[in-house]
Design goal:
single chain, globular, 8 strands, eight-stranded mixed sheet, 198 residues
Length: 198
């Protein structure tokens, strides 16, 4: 059977498109997998010891819960980074990180009442950052890529009204009403375990 020029052109186009689709599938298949954020122990049996006082931040529920071992003793409403969904990948993505952290420092803050600095970035955060870099997911601006970031913490707010409206306004931190952050500040010590979940 003889093909017209037009018919032959369509076969060439279809073959090229098919090859591109196969190549695209192959490229997607070898893309490195994102590092998993490990499940965090929430019971004494899981951790192999008593939990003591610790903090659970539930991003979806927009709340921070203080526990004594397995008993919740305080619950506070929170707001998060401007882009609250997903794990933090780099500086400036406005995401609140997920995983297990500890309070590294506590101090009064001129604008936000109190600040409890977390030990971000952890080795897990460094793995996520490296994966993002290798996968080409870091934005390139002015010839350089953003770093991993830092200075993530739990703090108050300049305007309780913004928090009351539930506006996520931070750059990745966890913000409470000032009266709540002052109470929380008095309940926890440096070294307190902080678990941040989706």
């Amino acid at each position: 059977m003889r093909l017209s020029r037009k018919g032959a052109s369509w076969i060439i186009i279809a073959t090229a498109a098919g090859a591109a689709m196969v190549a695209g599938c192959a490229a997607r298949a070898i893309k490195p997998e994102a590092p998993a954020i490990p499940e965090v122990a929430r019971t004494p049996a899981e951790i192999g010891a008593t939990l003591g006082r610790w903090i659970l931040v539930e991003k979806r529920a927009r709340q921070l819960v203080v526990y004594d071992d397995t008993k919740p003793i305080r619950t506070y409403p929170i707001v998060l980074g401007e882009d609250p969904l997903g794990a933090k990948m780099h500086e400036g993505d406005n995401r609140t990180p997920e995983g297990e952290y500890h309070i590294a420092a506590k101090y009064p803050h001129r604008a936000w009442s109190r600040f409890m600095l977390l030990d971000y970035p952890t080795p897990m955060n460094r793995d996520i950052y490296e994966w993002s870099r290798r996968s080409g997911l870091l934005p390139a601006g002015r010839g350089s890529m953003p770093g991993i970031g830092g200075q993530v913490g739990i703090h108050g707010t300049v305007d309780d009204g913004v928090n009351r409206r539930g506006e996520n306004w931070t750059r990745g931190c966890i913000s409470l009403f000032n009266r709540d952050v002052e109470e929380l500040y008095s309940l926890v010590e440096v070294g307190t375990r902080v678990v941040i979940e989706k």
